[in-house]
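for the writeup, i need someone to sanity check this before i put it in the appendix. the sequnce is what the collaborator sent (i think, or maybe the updated version? ugh). structure was predicted straight from it, no edits. if anything looks off just tell me and ill rerun, i have time this weekend
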Amino acid sequence: MKRRMKKHEDTSTLLDLADQVVFQGERATGATNLLQCVWTYNRAIDMDGLRRFHEHLLRGRLSRHVERSPLPFGRHRWVAPNDAPAIEVAPARPREELGAWLREQTAIELDYEHGPAWHLAVLPFTDGGTGLSLIISHGLADGVGLSTGIADAASGRDDSITWPAAGSRRRWRAVRQDARQTARDMPAVGRAIVTGTRMARRARREALTAASVSAPIAAPNEQIELPAATVFVDMDEWDAVARALGGTPNSLLAGIAAKFAQRAGRVTADEGLATLAVPINERVDGDTRANAVGNADVTVDPKRVTTDLREVRAAVKEALIRVQESPDERFALLPIVPFLPKRVIKKLVTVAAGGTTAVCSSNLGDVAAATNRPDGTEADSFSMRSLYPRVTRGTMDRAGGLLGMLSGRVNGQVFVSVLAYDPAHPSTIAQLQEAIFGTLAEFSLTATVQWDSQLDEIATEIAA
């Protein structure tokens, strides 16, 4: 039996400001950030067990929609979904086509306002194995929230909250409640205006001293596919390398991200330093936020990371302490976002990304074991990746490109997923994969893939 909320106007139904920003940002740019979970089995999947998992997903923390405020500047709210997405079972294909099928899955349009908010699909392999994909909007869950929601569903746990039905508030009541909420937010809005003015002046000064000159963007509304690739490293090997270099599993990922940034040219022009944007999990028990993360900026010199991680380890620790003492001023801007028009939000892409050379280095750490058991039994591999399937060339060019690395540990493996786009030098998936293998090889790490024999050949050549 689910525990019902005492009253629908409880603040737990209100979107956190960060979640409101994600929602409005997606609507302004048309670019939806998806998270895709991928499992592979070297055998047929237990469909009865998967159906039980699916039923719990429908009753779990990932099943909710956004209902907009009737006020143009009002805060939106979480409501119960009015749909029940089904499991897709695709026709059997060779295992080598799993990568292509996963990209096809990301072409499915998700909408966590009207539904469907997520999509679960099965691909039987002609060799008897199985691939499994779950795609979901990042606006509905961050990496930790998604893996926790999956683990809950795999363990038979449903959400403890029953969300109010869409449209359950009469319009006059919704207007009155949201107006009161706006009034409560006004002091924070005032502080955001002051902070935003200060940041804008600083940005103008930096722009005046910058040597680069913006060029017109060719075909700005053309949708492009950003290269994405995932590799796996044995967990014991990963930890052994981290210890040998005087680091930790987390600082090893930061070192790899910095070295990859150097290879991609996303470093400072003067000293060749890499700036890492490191998400910090802030989720607590009973948290209803979709994205419960902070952010720490870490400056790393990639020239020494392959031989010594002690500086990286110290820099990460110092950044975490600094964030606790002095929160990122960009988060102080959040209260003003509900009042901004779409065209202004669209221009904030680079500010939200932390600058044109920032590299996102996100580490989920130890993923709950149940996450690897969607059908009730252990999958042979699990990974998660972040994607922008319908982003435009203009959005990416204005942001100065993108480089993100997402990693986690489960079932004796460390997965490393990379998403990259350089407007000046676009690359293919195979080139990205080769760059990942080459970077890991500099750390004496051996990477493997769970599909695509051509990419396995690339890994073998680099290892040789």
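Residues 226-463 form a domain with the Chloramphenicol Acetyltransferase fold (CATH 3.30.559). The chain has a mean pLDDT of 87.
thx in advance!!
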